[in-house]
Write the structure tokens for this entry.
Amino acid sequence: MRRLFATVSTLLATALVGSAAPPDPQALADRIDARLDARLAAEKAKAAPPADDAEFLRRAYLDVTGRIPSPHDVYDFLADKDANKRAKLIDALLETPRHAGHFAAIWRATLVPEVAAVPEARVFRSGFEAWLRQKFRANTRYDVLVRELLTADISPDADAPTPALRRPDDPNPLAFYAVKEAKAENLAATTSRVFLGVQIECAQCHDHPFAKWTRDQFWNTAAFFAGVERHGDTLFGQLSETIARREIVPVVGKQAVAALFLDDKVPAWGKAVSPRVPLAAWVTAKDNPFFAKAAVNRVWGQFFGRGLVDPVDDFRDDNPPSHPELLDDLAKAFADSGFDLQFLMKAIGRTKAYHRTSARTDATQDDPRLYARMAVKGLTGEQLFDSFVRATGFREGVGRNSPRDQFLTRFAPTGKEPETSIPQALTLMNGKFIADATTLDSSPTLTAACETPGLEMAERVEVLYAAALSRLPTEKERERMLKYVSDGGTGKMAERLGDVFWVLLNSAEFRLNH
Amino acid sequence: MRTQLTRRHAIQLGTAGWLSSLAATAADHPERKRACIVLWMSGGPTQTDTFDPKPGHANGGPFKAIDTAAAGVRIAEHLPQVATQMKHLAVLRSMATKEGDHGRATLHLRTGNLPQGAIDFPVFGSLVAKEKTPAGSDLPGFVSVAPRGLGTAALSAGFLGPQHAPLVVGTAGDTYGDDSTGGLQVENLGLPSRVSRHRMDERLTLLSESEADFLTARPGTATASHKTAYERAVRLMKPAAAKAFDLSDEDDKLRDRYGRNRFGQGCLLARRLVARGVPFVEVGLGGWDTHDNNFKQVQGLCQTLDPAWATLIADLKDHGLLDTTTVVWMGEFGRTPGINPRQGRDHYPNAWSVVLGGGGIRGGQAVGKTGASGMEVEDRPVAVPDLLATVCHAIGIDPTKQNLSNVNRPIRIVDQAAKPIREVLS
């Protein structure tokens, strides 16, 4: 035990000395592993072995780019002999446009979940995601992104308000204000929950006996948005802001409450500047005690299936992190890097913990707070649809009420756990997509498996495994599937291979990120 | 050695061959079980313009109060059909809660608890489903019809696990279509045209064999949920179960009486499901968040609500189901008695109304009281756990029963401090 602590200290010291150089993701990765290993040792838990290359490849593609790899990617990666190929893969995937698109979808869901929940709000989706996509494509520093969102241009002249939506597909951050009905309390609640990890909205109506935040503090934060106004009653109403307004009357109450930061500091007001500007500066300041922690915890939760503080947006004294020192290390490294999200993800992608298999190899691996084996994560609607398209070879439609749009509605994640619903199972068993994918004349992948000349039957089965599960079948699986195909009798090959493909696409292994 | 171990695990966990065959038949359930239907008014319905009218007071607004079938119980004028059923209903006018945020109040009313760190509280429907679903039933124990506006956490079975999660129907499309199903059918229940039942059974067998190892090696919510959803979906695909959702079985005149809209047809579906042993059904009606233009909006909502609810009570009675089916009308909070400058009413948890009726409820009365302005509860304040404990008693569940939670601590169906409202129980 003492030796382990010594190791941790040495690593920390090394990292501190090197702080002037550009940040090294491997150094942070080592520090993360040292913290996790110390805890595993203390709990006498045994870490699972590394995932094999195919398991790792599929996971990295889903986490970083939001869809499974192509069979071509699978064969290339399995053949690659480079000892450093996993780190290289993560770095390369972070550079792809797909990565920006995937993260835009994730942050869209986090910042404006109303877009999926309220049908009238759906039209805001593409412009808001387009705006986020631009930011992630340029690896915009996280603090800059948040400042741009919180200080988005809104006309200070009520007679010349800003349209919330011009052309729906143009990049536009104003969906954030529009779908929250330009209400100060909604904007304050989301800002503190998403960017600071604290749920001050629980204090909207009254002081909670067990929570740290008071009702006044909630309205102090809301007051920064008090000047934002919507013209008209619809979601598409134009927006303006009375920038001199820095106080608000609580919904249940009479006394106006002034704008004040959550740490009770008094803002330094600039002339002719929106109160959102000092708020954004305080939220994203390097010394803000919440900002970096909330961000690293969210990204950690995305990659490991569970935040160090869980739920990821519920930092409270009575909901402590599983690894407090690790959270501090990550937050500091992230802030020191200039809030570089790619640096953070490169580090996470290099950890031993991220490389572990999700299969249980020891009874001590079931407590998810130990990260002893990789969590099995659900897929978002986007991840599932895009993976389905890739596996089956369908041409993807876009736009409202396209197959993708319908799929996203049905497969919107439910609850905080990765759950599959009955209607989802029915869609995957009986729906049009799956019927087409498993019928020869409408399925590019099945056609390739059945009609490529000169393949052994085992190779035809292999094509389906590579397409759907991004790996080769085991010996046992190969035999089982070959027997199933031959049991169908002559002339039934396409139908039986269609059944095999149906089984793979309906399996938990396809439906989950493991 | 390794193979043996794997196989033993598979048997222990029951993962091999876990999908039942489509051909297997369901067990019979002759004895009548008690059930609950919740009419969920998303957004927070105004009490002043429905069940706690304040005629003559500045807060009262333009609606008149009318007499009902229960002597002395007066309600607002736009629920005339419900008024005729009032002897089966008990109005509770003294809800006193604290949450004025939609999300938190919804979770509070639907789980009986406020979010507490890592505890993953189940919604009440899932708790009832766990207690009351007949063994071997092909229909889920909790069906949620058109739960528009409900966040995902408000539909979660939480620590009870995915087998008690609701089957959600009626979410497709934005509005009610005029097709015969009312948009309430379970989509994709039927097999694809080129797939026979025999072929589907072969596929299901192959699926359960080939993923047993993956599932066994990865215990946890994600895999359990996948396995459970497929099991439940396959049961639902059996013709008898699927038939429950086919409203074209019903008399056209009856369907007209419920109202040819999603909520009306949803109430009819609720009766069909309860008749087939489903213990908990909720039907959602959204649009109650009337910050602006409250009176016009509420009048419109009542035109949907009134015939559907009144017909549901009458129809349950006609089918001999009213004595065993408790019907609850509720939202997440009430609305301000004061009228805002936009002719709207805002969120108000301090003093509001819910209505209980049918099985286990002593109807024909109003319980609890607000003052002349409607601002405060004057008599018999009721907290959320009190309400849920009352429903438990009405449907024959012990609210103090414990379930093991995800934090390895037993948690009661309803908090122990809850006091059921004895005077509304029959």
Remarks:
- Confidence is low (pLDDT under 50) at residues 1-17, 24-30, 174-179 of chain B.
- DSSP finds eleven helices and 16 strands in chain B.
